Amino acid sequence: MMMMMTESMTTEMQTCINASMECHKICLETMTYCISKGGKYMDMGIMSMMRDCSEMCMMCMNMMMGGSEFMGRTCTLCAEMCDRCAAACETISDDSRMSECAAACCKCAEACRSMPMIPA
Length: 120
Hints:
Blueprint: H1 11-37, H2 44-65, H3 71-89, H4 96-113
């Protein structure tokens, strides 16, 4: 991926990009894990939330790296989706993999909320 605004990359943006990348990756890996486990792990609400969260994290990264005028609003939506995904993953609280996914989502949500909001 190409960073179109390297000269104006802030620490908050880099932190948010890194957290989004990690959340995207962990959500995808956790979906694969859930498919392999079956049973209660195949809950379509949880699976859909992880898929949506993963996609939103990727969009958030792309918006920031491209210097989009919409990155502030994208980060706000990404934080909301990450919070919901974390809550969904926490419904299977007796599994360390699900807890890891929830933690990555919480970290990404926090990073997105710390982004300076740039009006679109």
